[in-house]
Write a structure and sequence with these properties.
Two copies of one chain form a homodimer.
Chain A: H1 40-45, H2 47-58, H3 84-89, H4 99-106, H5 112-126, H6 137-146, E1 172-173, E2 176-177, E3 179-183, E4 194-198, H7 199-205, H8 210-223
Antiparallel strand pairs in A: 1-2, 3-4
Helix pairs in contact in A: 2-5, 5-6
Chain lengths: 224, 224
């Protein structure tokens, strides 16, 4: 258990009136308040990974297709909790989007605190990949007290359950990394429900929950 | 068994010098020579299905992403059999495309006759979906003599092995039909290897052969 500082930080940008930003350091910490201090080491030495964790934890995913109708790309997940009439005040007209696009955006919505907890969980998982860099003691202590003990090589793909290599963060095909942030239930975004998966596993899971996916493939095996 | 007319038909368009077009009616047929006479009924009453069969049988698939680098979209599969230097004469510069894009285009290549046989097979399969329209006797006779006896409700998804409903051709999400043309081996395009699949099944199969896919999901089941 850990008591967090939770000091409110200044929010900038278009959505500042409907956003919050807090300090996630431990209560009584030294130095300036920060949201992502536990990512300091990855930010310095594996920036792509740190950026991915922040982005996936806090933003809706990008549209896989590009068109006016595709709607806003990479928007703060908590903004998507606001009703249509509020979003309209911010220039986001949900009524012109296709229903399927609205549904996709809305199911990515999550409160700020869930997103922040998800980022901690993803960082904790990344450091437990077999070939992950050593986690500096001060970050490790924080992550372990937030989530639990860390064991090297214990992070597996949430879909196929095989170990995930940290190096896959670097491999990219057509701009897509071979590791994706994945959800046991794709319609919920929180630390319980989040993890990493091979890109092909995440694609195969699609919009199914993991339970649905396993039942589905078990049915296929039975019929073949 | 059936002896085909095979009379060469005039070819138009950019690639006419490296394309062929033949009559696929039976030898000694009445009326004009035609490539796709057995699709006459679907073309009239279910144009979307007939067009899909012709397109998927003869063209490379469209790029899922749009950019200059994505290369040519929906090109005749047999054109993709030509070496780079020939394609260059037709304004298709393969050397400026990413290797992954070239590989994707090249693996969709197939001789004209394989594409034409694939179209017959897909038509034969479509008419055997549980809720397919009645196949007119003259078309049915041709299809059965080309491929084999037709039984209502015998067409299943090649991936999940569940019956496929003809009505799924009409349902479309974001412009994508719920039925896709699929291949037991995604790197071969011929009548043995082709069939229909649910969109989600085809996506889950990805670039694996069906054998690889079944082995992969069996492994997942074992580990869960």
């Amino acid at each position: 258990m850990i008591h967090l500082c939770c000091h409110a930080l200044p929010v900038r940008g278009k959505y500042k009136d409907i956003s919050e930003k807090r300090c996630y350091k431990e209560q009584g910490h030294a130095g300036a308040c920060e949201e992502f201090h536990y990512l300091s080491h990855l930010s310095q030495f594996h920036k792509r990974v740190a950026d991915k964790i922040k982005r996936d934890a806090t933003k809706t995913t990008g549209a896989a297709w590009s068109s006016e109708e595709a709607g806003p790309n990479r928007i703060d997940r908590w903004v998507m909790l606001q009703p249509d009439e509020v979003l309209l005040r911010y220039g986001l007209d949900m009524s012109i989007l296709k229903q399927t696009v609205v549904a996709k955006l809305r199911e990515k919505a999550a409160p700020y605190s869930d997103c922040m907890d998800a980022a901690v969980k993803l960082t904790w998982l990344a450091y437990q990949m077999p070939d992950a860099p050593e986690c500096p003691p001060e970050n490790k202590d924080y992550l372990e007290r937030r989530i639990g003990p860390m064991n090297r090589s214990s992070t597996t793909c949430i879909v196929c359950r095989l170990p995930l290599s940290f190096s896959l963060f670097m491999n990219a095909q057509r701009g897509k990394a071979e590791i994706e942030t994945a959800h046991s239930n794709p319609r919920a975004h929180n630390s319980e429900n989040i993890g990493f998966a091979h890109r092909e596993c995440n694609i195969a899971q699609g919009s199914k929950t993991l339970d649905e996916f396993y039942a589905w493939i078990a049915g296929i095996i039975e019929r073949t």
